[in-house]
Amino acid sequence: MLSLDCDTLIVGSGVVGNTLACALLQGGQRVILVEATPALPIDLDQPDLRTFAFTRASERILTRLGVWDKIRPNRLSPFHQIYVWDTSGSGKIHFDSASLQESTLGYIIEQKVLQAALTARLSEFADLISYRPAKVQSFQQTEDETAMVVGLDNGQCLTTRLLVSAEGAQSSIRALAGISYELHDYGQQAIVATVQTVLSHEQTAWQCFLPTGPLAFLPLVDSHTCSIVWSLDTPQAQRLIKLDSDKFQRELETAFAFKLGAINHGSERALFPLQGRHVTNYVQPRLALVGDAAHTVHPLAGQGANLGILDAASLSEVILEAQANQRDWGTYQELRRYERWRKGNNWGMLKLMEGFRLLFGSTVAPIRLIRNWGLNLTDAATPIKQFIMKQAMGLTGDLPKLAKSKLG
Ligand SMILES: Cc1cc2nc3c(=O)[nH]c(=O)nc-3n(C[C@H](O)[C@H](O)[C@H](O)COP(=O)(O)OP(=O)(O)OC[C@H]3O[C@@H](n4cnc5c(N)ncnc54)[C@H](O)[C@@H]3O)c2cc1C
User: If one looks up domain 6-182+275-403 in CATH, what number appears?
Assistant: First the structure.
């Protein structure tokens, strides 16, 4: 029998690929990680513009993988409340962790702070081999179909039971495998920046729906510093990104109706095109897609990375269970369990985000009336609110063991 270089080869060392690597290594697998960018030290002295709103489900997963304790506590910002309102009416809704007897609804964390914690955890495993910078050039199953042979652009040829693409939205392996996807170009771009507000954010995640798109203020550790995500139609986003700092801050505080007072300092700004994607197949024999390689969703509810982390936890559970029972985890039959588990869930979130975007983007008077009425009605209905809160915390649906309240 062919001696393999590893049990699972993961391409892409982003948040999702690294989480999957931690889970498989902790479960005793030999893993190879291939990443296109060079390994550079992560400079945590400078803040990162990119932040994630992180669910409690992601917290549980990363805690069980020994990653959460490695996140710098002075860079982890819990939020206890969410406040959402419609600027073109009186509709509003307020969520509070205390009403669920929970300490927090979630966390805001900078991408590079999370990556530093994942990298620190990965460095503790002896059974990890990394190739970076490197890319996959080719792959094909062995003649007996028991393994995948993977060619890298550095000339290396590696054998594995399973190849996983965690390469993000532009996955090259997805293209090489001929896996198609449904694409929704939202015609929007998101401006992200860090800003200082005169009023305290009160550890609350704030989001208003403007006719031009959603605007979120996410609380960072300093009580007067927020990460903003402002989604707008492309021409408006292009106009705002070019404004000087002062003009941008004036437009931002006006759009946000001075909810947190004036904005007196802003960082540089970055722009991200927004597209929804969902692949037709998550798996082929000896191949699986996770995270943004399989799906991208509108950032209005901050779910993209959280869904990817659930993918990683679910796929690792399927793989490790097959391995524990001496079954080959790279077969289509085993991998289909992962696809069936995650595809419907991710599709549902994608459609929900599209529905919200269309509902809140509409300026048609009856729709505006209904959504304002609906928001206020929901705000008054405790069971519905509690269900939505649990959904936002990632604690509903068929969760992988790593995300359940009790392991078992
Ligand atoms: C404006 C904005 C705000 C967002 N806010 C949130 C939020 O609040 N909460 C949330 O959960 N999600 C949020 N998201 C979504 C989140 O950013 C993504 O879902 C998440 O980063 C995807 O992680 P990933 O590891 O799958 O992919 P990526 O982060 O894209 O990582 C892919 C990795 O693969 C590497 N790679 C790419 N191609 C190759 C190749 N050919 N060979 C080798 N390596 C390769 C890349 O260098 C990278 O390291 C937001 C997104 C946007 C745009």
Answer: 3.50.50.60
